Amino acid sequence: MRTNIHRGVVTRTDLNCEGSIHISEALIEATTIHPFAAQKRNINNSRRIETYTLPSPRDSGEICMNRAAGYLTLCDDLVAITSFGCLDERSPADHVGRLILTDNQS
């Protein structure tokens, strides 16, 4: 695990947008999630989906599930968004994943 946004609140869904998750730029910077594949787990209904992340306006606090992710998620659902990465064989002992706990407004 590289990073995890834990208990983020879904603020919006967009069923007409290309598949992805829009996350406020401030959250992306805090977690170092880049436009890489990310796994989204819905804490409310246990559904999972893998997709990529895109930035929303910096201070919007937005976590928006698009297209397929939007069909599996409702506004106000709690989610965990995790990104993974490869480590050099010498560095696993030094690796510390980044965990971001959000408030009720993402």
Care to describe what's here?
The protein has an eight-stranded mixed beta sheet. A hairpin with a 5-residue loop joins strand 4 and strand 5. 29% of the residues are buried. The mean pLDDT is 85. With 106 residues, it is mainly β. It has helices spanning 25-31, 67-71, and strands at residues 3-9, 12-14, 21-24, 37-42, 48-56, 63-66, 78-83, 98-101. It is globular and about 45 Å long. Helices cover 11% and strands 41% of the residues. The chain is built from two helices and eight strands, in the order βββαβββαββ. The longest helix has 7 residues, at 25-31. The chain has one domain: Barwin-like endoglucanases (Beta Barrel), CATH 2.40.40.20. The two termini are 20 Å apart.
One letter per element, helices H and strands E, the order comes to EEEHEEEHEE
CATH architecture designation: Beta Barrel
Integer average pLDDT: 85
Percent in strands? 35-45%
Helix content: 10-25%
In the CATH hierarchy, the third-tier topology is known as Barwin-like endoglucanases
**Structural class by helix and strand composition:** mainly beta
Low-confidence stretches: none
**Backbone shape:** globular
> Looking across the biggest beta sheet, what order are the strands in?
2-6-3-5-4-7-1-8
Number of domains: 1
The top-level CATH class is Mainly Beta
State the end-to-end CA separation. Answer: 20 Å
Q: What's the helix count?
A: 2
The main pleated sheet reads as:
8 strands, mixed
Task: Indicate the radius of gyration in whole angstroms.
Answer: 13 Å
Number of strands: 8
Topology:
Layout: E1 3-9, E2 12-14, E3 21-24, H1 25-31, E4 37-42, E5 48-56, E6 63-66, H2 67-71, E7 78-83, E8 98-101
Parallel strand pairs: 1-8, 2-6, 3-5
Antiparallel strand pairs: 1-7, 3-6, 4-5, 4-7
